[in-house]
Amino acid sequence: MHRVRVATAVLTGRLLLVAVLLLVLAGAAAAVPQGPDDSPAAMGRDGLAATPPMGWNSWNAFGCDIDEAKIRGVADALVASGMRDAGYRYLVVDDCWFDPRRGPDGQLRAAPDRFPGGIPALVRYVHERGLRFGIYLSPATRTCAQYAGDYPGATGSRGHEVQDAGTIAAWGADYLKYDWCSPSGDLGDLVAGFRLMRDALRATGRPIVYSINANSHQDANPGETHDWSGLANLSRTTQDITAAWHTGLRGAGCLGISDIIEVNAALAARAGPGHWNDPDMLEIGVPGTEGLPGLTPAEARTHLGMWAMMAAPLIAGNDVRSMDAATRDLLTNRDVIAVDQDRLGRQGRRIRGTDVQVWVRPLVEGVAVAVYNRGDATADMAATTAEVGLPPARGYLVRDAWSGRQWTSTGALTAAVGAHDTALLVVRPLP
C-alpha cells in the first residue's frame, strides 16, 4: 500500500479538506486499497493451512468428465492406497459439478445427471472416510469451463458471493478453489472479487481453506506479481501446469515443471503458515497430452521434491483408482512429505547455480538440501554444512529422502544427480 505523507501546513476549513481529498484520490489511483484484514496473520488466525494443504483435485485426471461414482471411487482409493494416511486429506471437486442453471432462488445445485445424490450426501461420504471436502467456484460470471465453451451456462459467483459461501458452508465444504476465469478486470477488480468471497466465507463461521487463482485468462500474471498472502490461504503463482518438463510458454500457456520452479523461486518471502505459494497441482502419474510425453521418473521426483522444498500444497491430480505402485510409492514418500509439512513453514531458497542448482530449506530441526539438475546430463555437486546454514557440530546426520539411506558427515555434502533429477537430503547436527 502506498502511503501519502502530507507536509505540515497551515490550512484551514475547506482548503484542508480539499487538499486531503486530492492526495487520497491520487494515492488510490496508484495502489490497490487494502482491507482491514488483508494480512497473512489474519488469514492464519483460524489455524487454517498451518502447513501446506495436501489432497487430490479432479481436474487433471478427469476435466469436466466427473460424476458422483468417480468421486466416491477416488475417496475410497485415497483411503485404500494409503494416501489419506500419508496426509492427502482434501478431496476437491473441480469445475463442471453444477447444474448449468441456478435454482429459482439463485442457489447453486449439483448437476442432477452427474450427481443424483446431491452434494451434501457426497460430502458425508467423503467425511465418513476421514477426508475433507473441497469444491470449485469462480468470481466471474462464468467458470473456466463455461468461459472456454466446454460446459453450458453462466453460474459464476459474481453477485452471489454471500449466497454461494453460505451454500457450500451448509453443505459441509472444507476447502474452496476460487478461479478468476475472465480476461476482464484490472488488479483492483481481482482483489475486490477475491476479498468479497474471503469475507463471505468468514461470515459463515465454518473453517474453509481458501485457494485462489488470479491468472486464469489474464494476459498478465497477477498471481506472480501481486502479493496475495492476506487474501487467501493458497494463491496460484503461475499459469496452469501440464505434464511436461518444459514448455517455454510463460505468460502464454501451460507450463512445465522446470518453468514453474523458476517463477516460484523468487516468491519465497510470501509463504508461511496461513498462506502458501501455489505452483499448481501435481502431475505425477498424469499422462502427457497434446503431443507432450508426460514426466520421466526423474522428472516426477523433481516435481515432488521441489514442491516440498518450496513448501507448496501437494494436491495430486492423477487417477488414484488405477495408479501403479511406483506412482503410489512416490506420492506417499514420508520423508519428502515431512519436508513439505515441516511446521517451521519456511519456503526453500536457491543459494547458487543455474543448470545445477542448490536449494536450502530451514526445518524445525536441521535443513533440507536439494540439488536440482535442470540440465540434460548427469552432474556432480559439492557443498558444505556451513554453506547451507548449519552451525558447527561434531558431525551431521544426512538422510537421503528418496531411499531412506542415512550416513554421517563431518561437513561435506556431495551428490551425483542425473538429468532432470533432484537429490534431496535432510541434514541435522549430531547431538
Automatic annotation (TrEMBL):
InterPro entries: Aldolase_TIM (IPR013785), GH (IPR017853), Glyco_hydro_27 (IPR002241), Glyco_hydro_b (IPR013780), Melibiase_C (IPR041233). It catalyses: Hydrolysis of terminal, non-reducing alpha-D-galactose residues in alpha-D-galactosides, including galactose oligosaccharides, galactomannans and galactolipids. Residues 1-31 form the signal peptide. The keyword Glycoprotein does not apply. It is an enzyme of class 3 (hydrolase). It holds the Pfam family Melibiase_C. The keyword Lipid metabolism does not apply. One of its GO terms (molecular function) is alpha-galactosidase activity. Keywords: Disulfide bond, Glycosidase, Hydrolase, Signal. Residues 354-426 form the Alpha galactosidase C-terminal domain. Its EC number is 3.2.1.22. GO terms for biological process: carbohydrate metabolic process. PANTHER family: ALPHA-GALACTOSIDASE MEL1, ALPHA-GALACTOSIDASE/ALPHA-N-ACETYLGALACTOSAMINIDASE. Belongs to the glycosyl hydrolase 27 family. This is Alpha-galactosidase.
